[in-house]
Design goal:
Layout lengths: L1 E6 H14 L7 E5 L6 H9 L5 E5 L3 H13 L3 E6 L1 H16 L5 E6 L13 H4 L7 E4 L3 H16 L7 E6 L7 E6 L2 H7 L23 H33 L7 E4 L6 E5 L3 H14 L4 E6 L1 E3 L3 H7 L5 E6 L9 H10 L7 E6 L9 H13 L7 E2 L5
Parallel strand pairs: 2-3, 2-4, 4-5, 5-7, 6-7, 10-11, 10-13, 13-14, 14-15
Antiparallel strand pairs: 1-8, 6-12, 9-11
Helix pairs in contact: 1-2, 1-6, 3-4, 6-8
Length: 391
Amino acid sequence: MAIEVVTGNHAAGYALSVAAEANRVGRGAACGIYPITPQTEIVEFVARFPFTKGRVIAVESEHSAMGVSIGAAMAGARAFTASSSNGLAYMTENIMVAGYYRLPIVLAAVNRTLGPPWNIWADQGDTLYLRDFPMIQLYCETNQEVLDSTVLAFRLAEDSRILLPVMVIMDAFILSHTQMETDLPEQDLVDRFLPPLNLPHQLRFERPTTVGGLTWPRETLSQRLEIDEAMERVAAAYEEHRAAFEKIFGRDPGGAISAFETEDAEAVLIASGTIASTAREVVRNRRARGEKIGMVKMKMFRPLPGEALLDAMPRATKIGVLDRDYAAGVGGVWWHDLRAAMQGRRDGVLMQDYLTGVCGGDVTPAMLEEVIDDLLDRRSAGKPVWKGIDR
């Protein structure tokens, strides 16, 4: 392995490339690419990679980029692509198709505010609005986590118990364009971790198959149930592949959730992405002052690891959810879903939503100190609290 100082985009591009190259003894690899700020560097890296058996196809739109990846995956190739913001919105129809076709495509997504008005800074709303599609979502805190999660994503997606797309997600510019020391694994290690793809339902010349035809409600319902059963298997499968990753690469890629100082915590912050780094330091400082504060970093949003979350904070009576997103009329998406997951499972828990860093605003230690003060003073939950508003 080699430690280099690289951007999050470089880490994602490297991981996509070496994971795809690992299938050279199988049906090879292919992807469709289309640029959009701030993910363009990812597809630029992939386009330069010297694949032994692979095709990188530049297309005219994000919709077509995922279309190419769908075609490649259906032919048994290891397939992937990348996008952001309105590009993801344009890709939406085919993201849905990839999920319902049970194709193990890996999508690198760089969170960026949806427009108009046009805004290129970090906001998780562009990926969270895809939450109802049959796709696993992993949110990353560091460049190393981007790389590790991307490599792991292929093994998880291609697991015969799962066979679903995986979206690996990072914050625009905070990770995508920021350089950090990152361990870039050699190709032979990736080869050991990723076996050749064997897609059970790949299209074959000798066995003509119709795909995407009309089905009756009963057949469609059966397919939806199979997807739900696959989603229920994700948590256990992820932990298996996490253990295998650590054995081969010598480091932990991180769990679906990561608890910090929560064993006796009465108040807990829930964060995702890069906000978790800031929240962890603030919690550490409050702990040093004797306060029973903890934090949970959520990496996996789909499927939602509700049981694991409950187990991670056994004594919490107040929970503050940090949302870098906004769903019109309902507040933050994380808060909305976590509140539903908690309902009826634990009485007497106050869960408050804090809209932090929405539309790319800075999330500072001082802001999170204010969040904790507000949470500790509360006797009941209220409307989502907006932070960083200058009016």
